[in-house]
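TA notes. Do not distribute before section.
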Amino acid sequence: MPQKAWSDKRGPRGWAYRKASDLTDFRSMIPWFGQSIDAADGEFSLQNPLRFWRARTRLNWNPQRSAGALDAFKDVHIAMTLATGGKPLPLATWSRLRTLVTPHPLGGCNMAAAPGAGVTNHKCEVFGHNNLFVMDGAGFPSGACQNPTLTIMALTVRSTDYLLGELKRGTL
């Protein structure tokens, strides 16, 4: 079954696409992607944890603490666009709403040397909870300045090697 074109969709998604299409021709658009280091001071919590099937994740993060880095990031994108003969179209979520969209949220279960300083040890195992591992970007102790995909993969492979070794020795 062929997928319906965005322009034919109903509801909020279709409306948003049609509205965005009125503003620009996506066929001639080149997105700039980049990274910056924010304050890395946000906290996730779980609303309604007793009824986990209805629980929602809540982010408590003040983007104003990261405004300097994020404004500089926006300025570089505008300069790059102008330098290549383009027309800048700054990200509205930051320039107007002062909020962000990120493909790589990091932290939350920070890796540390001791329980009081973080959530997981160097093997990605949660302090005080044997055999509970966090094998993703949540273990980062701070923001990364490069795409974290390979680092996340390396941490996961290292933790998995440890886990397999323990299983082979029968200590888990």
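Switch to the second chain here.
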Amino acid sequence: MAASSPRARGDKRRLILDAAIRVFARQGFHACRVSDVADEAGVAYGLVYHYFDSKEHMLNTLFTERWQLMLDAIVAIDEGHDASAREKLREVASFIIDSYRHEPDLMKVIIVEVTRAANSFGREHLQKIDEAYALIARIVESGRHDGSFKADISAQFAAMCFYGAIEQLLTAWIFDLMPRTDEELERAKSLVVEAICGGLEATPESAPAIAR
């Protein structure tokens, strides 16, 4: 029998991961079994173990893939063009909210099962999570240096407030605590930036830009 091609193997792996997203989102990570993922994917139970050691391996893979996409997007936003810190933060908010719009089940899994799971997966991935805060803080720091943001609010604190506000919005949509129409999601991009940047922005009476 001919060996399967790399593309076929990749397709099977992706099929299993996509099934895992649906199962984890629908049943919750801790309540499901590997066999549930196999059934959802329509593959043999043993085939799942050919690609993944456990359901933990699947969740770790899903998180790492999605989180790296976000990190790459933040870097591209920060370095891609000469925009103000506020404009860059709006682009970051837009990317994260659009990620939820297009892949709500995956974002639900990432938030509920990883970033908010402080005693398990969240702790395991803390360094990677912190990278996002650091990249957002770098954008805020540029605003502190050019005087558009207040110098007495640390970039690290502002970054945590900014991302925390977005994550709380996503959580509210996930648990149906707020309407999530396309109009509401689009409106939220500006609202979260206004709420956070409104407090960060310097007034004429504020301290001058930080000396480099």
